[in-house]
Amino acid sequence: MTDSPSGASDFIRDIVRADTAQGVYGGRVQTRFPPEPNGYLHIGHLKAITVDFGVAEDFDGTTVLRLDDTNPDAEDAEYVESIVDDIEWLGFHPVSVCHASDYFGELYDWAELLVGQGLAYVDDQDAETMSATRGSFGVPGVDSPFRERSPEENLDLLRRMRAGEFPDGSRVLRAKIDMAHENMQMRDPVMYRIRHAHHHNTGDAWPIYPTYDWAHGQSDAIEGTTHSLCTLEFESHRPLYEWFLNQLPLTSAAPKQREFARLELTHTITSKRRLRKLVEEGVVDGWDDPRMPTLRGLRRRGYPATALRAFCDAIGITKTNSRKAIEELESYVRRDLDRSSRRRMAVLHPLKLVLTNWPTDEAGDPVVEYFDLANNPKDPDDGTRPVAFSGQLWIEAEDFAEVPPPKYFRLSPGREVRLRGAYFVTATDVVKDLDGRVVQVNATYDPATRGGDSPDGRKVKSTMHWVSAPHAWDATVNLYDRLFTTDVPGAETGEPLDDLNPASREALRGAKLEAALADVSPGEVLQFERLGYFAADPELPGLFHRTVGLRDEWAAVQKRG
After folding, report:
1. Catalytic choice (272, 291, 296, 482)
2. Of these residues, 36, 112, 242, 264, which one is catalytic?
3. pTM for the whole thing?
4. Which of 28, 162, 195, 262 is catalytic?
5. For 412-426, what is each residue's pLDDT tens digit?
6. What DSSP string runs through 341-406?
7. Is 512 an active-site residue?
8. Residues 257-309: pLDDT tens digits?
9. Residue 88 is a catalytic residue
10. Is 274 a catalytic site residue?
11. Which residue, among 136, 232, 231, 259, has the nearest Cα to 187 in the 3D structure?
């Protein structure tokens, strides 16, 4: 086919469209997503995932998930499992899951081929010397004194490296290209390093490991990748990608690397090294801490996979790096949850409200009534649930003011308000503790306003949520602020961790929740009326995380900008 069914158009899809029209790959489209399993996937990976899988899907193609595991010191099976799971959670399904290490044998055979052709050599210089003699932009590098070794000597040394004869760092295999090349990537790049380290997939079979540049394009070719889509930092690597492939006896058209802008968000970092530091130093509770920009963290916080994908689709594929406002992402999350989430009532800062004229039964116990409230006003098919109402209630502390400020329309002495779906009530007096703090508000209710409307047509200016005190259950609710205080963490000091927000989480213990919330499913996201969207922790019952608030902060950002 020569067009994308989704109708999406961008420069990447234009390239794929032209290649399929010309039959470059026999009309076949195959992409790959190649994360390094040295940490958990984060929001920056999300863009690459949606591009790799989305482009392939648009042209009836396939995507391979390849774990780029060429660095045994930093990689772990834990990360492999998390990556596979996160991609499935996003709703993408790779045609296969493999490892760069699956191809170590073929990569090594090709390395011997280049050595035999005089296109690669073993260098005995240490890393510091190689770096010092590499030159700089406009300044050519210096040839290694080992550059003119014969193919026979290089092949012997490479095989001895492969056999584990030499210690770590004593030798490397380098491509023999041009130490004066204007592209620094082409100045005799390293292909293999000696590293006697246990590998999560190959065990102790290999004492040498390929570099990213040597493994990348060749793995693409082995798998049958047609379009190798990378972020812009790999643009300078493209000539080397193509040079390696041009030297090899490929049996089909070489894959084509093209680059696009990565995803960056305000108040966010995507450096795995720094994210790992946050975990290791206990700044956060783990890779899945809801404040983390990892997919695990966003998932635990309640971000829907559909909202993340919709956001990436909306911002599109460009050639220029930019930083998106995190409020824009949150607007997609809020919009998605508004349609899908059930409504419940919860009181985060409880204050007792007692209805002094509430009736009692023959035994003298307060009468309990039930109101049927909609589970989701946006989805009538979601039905209703019964909510208990009694003469003792919890309301938000901020919903009462003994001395109300100007334009305060919530509960205060003598003022009538509506309790959501229940009755009109009027505050009469308060009870205070020894420090003079209000601990209870007394009020009367109007029985004629059952359901929240007055038969005489009188209006009130405020509707408040509530929870019946005898039926409430306690929970802990975590509220979150930005993990970093500045739009661009580290912009002033050069170290993003200098801008950490010490007040990024507030744990509210003793929040009062309506009875229906006791049966919430792990991970389910609900709207706490008037408060925002909250996710039930997937592992810890009685713990909720605020996903996003109700206010559309992105609209305010657009208005300011």
Report:
1. 272
2. 36
3. 0.92
4. 262
5. 999 999 999 999 999
6. PEEE-EESSEEEEEETT--B-TTSPBP-EEEEEES-TT-GGG-EEEEEE-SEEEEEGGGB-SSPPT
7. no
8. 999 999 999 999 999 999 999 999 999 999 999 999 999 999 999 999 999 99
9. no
10. no
11. 136
